[in-house]
Amino acid sequence: MNTIKIIGLIAAFCTTVSFVPQAIKTIQTQNTSGISLGMYSLFAFGTLLWLLYGVFSSNLPITLANGITLVFSIIILVYKLKYK
């Protein structure tokens, strides 16, 4: 594995793991009052596009990070819509 891919995997790990506390807190408290529906919708859509980019360009770090982040952002969006 080359240095660039290692850097990409470390970056993917850091940015993806940063979403875990927010997702856990949202699931536990069901409180989404501080979350903007518009911002999170746009973020989830952008993450989906990054995931597709990663898949189509065979870029493992981008695919992994955005696949996992998309799951977290969709969970938060569902909670935002469910617990308005």
Architecture overview:
The protein is mainly alpha-helical and 84 residues long. It has one domain (3-82): Monooxygenase, CATH 1.20.1280. The protein contains four helices and no strands.
Core attributes:
84 residues; mainly alpha; Monooxygenase; 0% strand
Distance between the termini: 46 Å
Taking all Cα atoms into account, the compactness measure Rg is: 14 Å
Unreliable spans: none
What is the helix/strand order?
HHHH
Coarse shape: elongated
Instruction: Work out the strand percent.
Output: under 5%
Write the layout of secondary structure elements.
Blueprint: H1 3-17, H2 20-29, H3 37-56, H4 60-82
Helix pairs in contact: 1-4, 2-4, 3-4
Summarize, please:
It contains 4 helices and no strands.
